[in-house]
Amino acid sequence: xxxxxxxxxxxxxxxxxxxxxxxxxxxxxxxxxxxxxxxxxxxxxxxxxxxxxxxxxxxxxxxxxxxxxxxxxxxxxxxxxxxxxxxxxxxxxxxxxxxxxxxxxxxxxxxxxxxxxxxxxxxxxxxxxxxxxxxxxxxxxxxxxxxxx
Length: 149
What we know:
Helix content: under 10%
Order of helices and strands: EEHHEEEEEEEEE
Number of helices: 2
Radius of gyration: 15 Å
Structural class: mainly beta
Shape: globular
């Protein structure tokens, strides 16, 4: 959750090639702790931009979730934010590659980022807890050693 006073830019946790985006229109409920507890399935009801990357850890999905007042999700590869009433899927063949730490996008105000990896490809840092503050450059985990599985 990005509160209004937080940094609103999203950076790449791994270097990766953009494969596909899926824009999903939706509501713009607030994403603070109280609202997420009261509104069923809030993250799947709010507007979202799903970006799928090919990385050294396998496929990585970054989901930028819109929220009240935000309604503007911007990425570095889009000229303008998407405004649509239907799902829009775009496959990329023009080799958009973002380095680890590079800016991926930003919110015009606060919102949420959901980060997903293929099963058993990464291990999250065990010290991370719900409501942990995350800072730019902070380690969130590591790539799993697949040779030992």
